[in-house]
């Protein structure tokens, strides 16, 4: 969990975050300013006290962490202008999807699956929720910095004989990111005790059993014995140093400053994401900013592998449980080279004993190779030739090796036929220098693991469903790309079917209010 150094707005006030830096604040750059003062939160770090008179001040200055950088509308950015891009794309994003083949029945017909990969374009909007979202936990208060998001994705395809690209809606998602690091200690006060008290002032049971005559007993009673072994009960505060006691009767009430001594809560992670997907899945991911040593702002460009190192199973559309196309880390397929010859051969028992290669042949043979095999190579190639000054990497997952866990809830149909068991997500927030100016860029990779059908040996097979994309603010993409984005996401008819290309509609309507490029 991360903390950020706070600055006081006034003497003796709560310690609050400084205003977010603007893009042109100074030569250090937006991300560099935003990430100032971040460090790992430790158990012996100072804990901030909470008081009701500072509630509005705290809520109005809630920390959104690095999530502040996301605010705005982001859209697909195609780097085709870049001379280092040897293979132009028709859509900046790539997805790979594996589904059960028609006619199959789960767990009975191994090896039959439908593979689909497409390029896509996207609109992704983030909106900061004003004020902190207060989670009350007694002695601990958490103020979440909430950021709503809304995502729309359309596939981009070429149809033989048709010069126009075809766009079709394939994904909708909305949800919330939370920054989870604003934690306060709220010790009991005289006022909170009087307001929330719900017990009788005098306890007859305390008097009859233990001889306690006072009101609102707010500390334990302990049993003591005299030299003759006769028992009596006294308050813990009356116990003398070294005096032996035999029984403890817990307190029935709290007293002012209870809770100040801890234990103090340190959130397991700094960031959560909750998303709703219309296929019938709801996900919660947990994660944090990934450091490079002690640095949470990493200088230079994100690094992706080349050559033999591209064959890295966690990032491939071919999982080891699918047989891995007969390859492995020690016997890799170099995805920077043309696909192996067998990919385009007719396979039989002689050149493919065990039917391992034919199982994944269609993936390697797809026209989007090598991105259809390892989609994040598209991210790597998009960065080629760009001057990336620095970046922040957020890593999140629904399934952690230890500690707090996220999760996935699916409707019964999905659970039965294509159970979704894990979501892993990486988001790079990058500072790109172009024409002497700094531009923010987002890149993400999401790997969703399905499990359906058994392999020939009866084992469960893991099927990766991967999406990657590069996005920029709508004002930072070239005019020709902006025109397509406006047509597909802002000028589309109201209530458009997710499978009806906007280019095929005759009646257009004005884009929603706030579209920065709508000309009235």
Task: Give the total of beta strands.
Answer: 22
State the end-to-end CA separation: 47 Å
Q: Overall mean pLDDT score? A: 87
Largest sheet: 15 strands, mixed
- Give me the strand/helix succession: EEEHEEHEEEEEEHHEEEEEEHHEEHEEEH
Task: Note down, in words, how this protein is organized.
- With about 525 residues, this protein is mainly beta.
- It has helices at about 30-35, 55-60, 190-195, 205-210, 355-365, 375-385, 410-415, 480-490; strands spanning about 1-5, 5-10, 15, 40, 50, 70-75, 95-100, 115-130, 135, 140-160, 160-185, 220-225, 230-235, 250, 270-275, 280-290, 300, 390-395, 405-410, 420-435, 435-455, 460-475.
- The strands form 4 sheets. It has a 15-stranded mixed sheet that branches.
Précis, in short:
The chain is mainly beta and 520 residues long.
Describe the secondary-structure layout:
Elements: E1 2-4, E2 7-8, E3 15-16, H1 30-34, E4 38-40, E5 48-49, H2 55-60, E6 72-76, E7 93-100, E8 113-128, E9 133-136, E10 140-159, E11 162-185, H3 190-196, H4 204-210, E12 221-225, E13 231-235, E14 248-249, E15 271-277, E16 281-289, E17 298-299, H5 356-364, H6 376-383, E18 388-397, E19 407-410, H7 412-417, E20 420-434, E21 437-454, E22 460-473, H8 479-490
Parallel strand pairs: 5-11
Antiparallel strand pairs: 1-4, 2-3, 6-8, 6-22, 7-8, 7-22, 8-10, 9-10, 10-11, 11-15, 12-13, 12-14, 15-16, 16-18, 16-19, 17-18, 18-20, 20-21, 21-22
């Amino acid at each position: 969990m991360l903390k950020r150094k706070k600055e006081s707005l006034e003497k003796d006030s709560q310690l609050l975050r400084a205003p977010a830096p603007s893009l042109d604040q100074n030569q250090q750059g937006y991300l560099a300013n935003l990430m100032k003062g971040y460090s790992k939160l430790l158990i012996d770090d100072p804990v901030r006290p909470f008081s009701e008179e500072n509630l509005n001040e705290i809520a109005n200055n809630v920390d959104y962490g690095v999530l502040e950088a996301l605010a705005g509308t982001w859209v697909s950015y195609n780097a085709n202008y870049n001379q280092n891009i040897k293979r132009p794309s028709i859509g900046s994003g790539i997805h790979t999807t594996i589904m059960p083949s028609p006619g199959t029945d789960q767990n009975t017909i191994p090896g039959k699956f439908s593979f689909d990969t497409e390029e896509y374009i996207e609109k992704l909007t983030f909106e900061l929720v004003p004020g902190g979202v207060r989670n009350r936990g007694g002695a601990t208060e958490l103020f979440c910095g909430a950021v709503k998001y809304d995502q729309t994705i359309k596939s981009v395809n070429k149809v033989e004989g048709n010069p126009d690209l075809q766009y079709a809606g394939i994904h909708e998602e909305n949800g919330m990111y939370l920054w989870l690091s604003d934690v306060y200690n709220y010790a009991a006060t005289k006022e909170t005790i009087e307001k929330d008290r719900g017990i009788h002032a005098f306890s007859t049971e305390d008097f009859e059993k233990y001889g306690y005559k006072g009101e609102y007993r707010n500390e334990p009673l302990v049993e003591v014995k005299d030299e003759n072994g006769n028992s009596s009960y006294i308050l813990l505060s009356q116990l003398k140093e070294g005096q032996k006691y035999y029984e403890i009767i817990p307190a029935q009430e709290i007293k002012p400053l209870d809770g100040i001594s801890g234990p103090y809560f340190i959130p397991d992670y700094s960031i959560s994401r909750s998303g709703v997907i219309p296929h019938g899945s709801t996900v919660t991911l947990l994660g944090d900013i990934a450091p490079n040593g002690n640095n949470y702002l990493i200088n230079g460009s994100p690094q992706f592998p080349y050559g033999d190192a591209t064959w890295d199973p966690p990032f491939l559309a071919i999982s080891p449980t699918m047989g891995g196309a007969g390859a492995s880390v020690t016997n890799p397929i170099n995805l920077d080279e043309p696909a192996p010859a067998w990919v385009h051969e007719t396979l039989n028992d002689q050149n493919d004993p065990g039917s391992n290669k034919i199982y994944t042949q269609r993936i390697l043979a797809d026209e989007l190779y090598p991105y259809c095999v390892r989609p994040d190579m598209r991210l790597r190639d998009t960065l080629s030739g760009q001057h990336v000054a620095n970046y922040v990497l957020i890593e999140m997952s629904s399934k952690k090796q230890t500690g707090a866990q996220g999760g996935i809830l699916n409707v019964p149909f999905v659970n039965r036929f294509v159970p979704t068991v894990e979501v892993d997500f990486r988001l790079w927030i990058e500072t790109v220098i172009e024409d002497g100016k700094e531009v923010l860029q987002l890149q993400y990779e999401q790997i969703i693991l399905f499990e359906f059908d058994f392999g020939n040996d009866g084992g469960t097979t893991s099927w990766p469903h991967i999406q990657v994309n590069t996005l920029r603010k709508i004002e930072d993409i070239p005019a020709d790309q902006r025109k397509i984005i406006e047509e597909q996401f802002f000028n589309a008819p109201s209530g458009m079917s997710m499978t009806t290309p906007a280019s095929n509609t005759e009646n257009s309507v004005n884009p929603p209010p706030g579209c920065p490029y709508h000309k009235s």
